[in-house]
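SAMPLE LOG
Freezer: B-3
Tube label: C17
Construct: single chain, 86 aa
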Amino acid sequence: MHILSEYESLKRGPQETVQDYCARLNNVYNVIPQNLRPPLELASIKFPGGFDSDMEYQLRERAPPSLEDMQSIAISVEANLISKRA
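STRUCTURE (predicted):
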């Protein structure tokens, strides 16, 4: 039950890259026992909630078909933002 609580409360840290957040979320998700693990469709719904409201909105608006696609989009958005700032 502790791992489910950790999964439900996951948020991206202030200095954490999107890629690191995705890896952390995936690691926690994969540790959840199979019989308690939420389906990937529910993980896709939970994933955007780990970001600030702007990023969450952008991810929900794009409505990618899978968690993997959503994570790829989030990583590319961050890369674009970093390149624009540089």
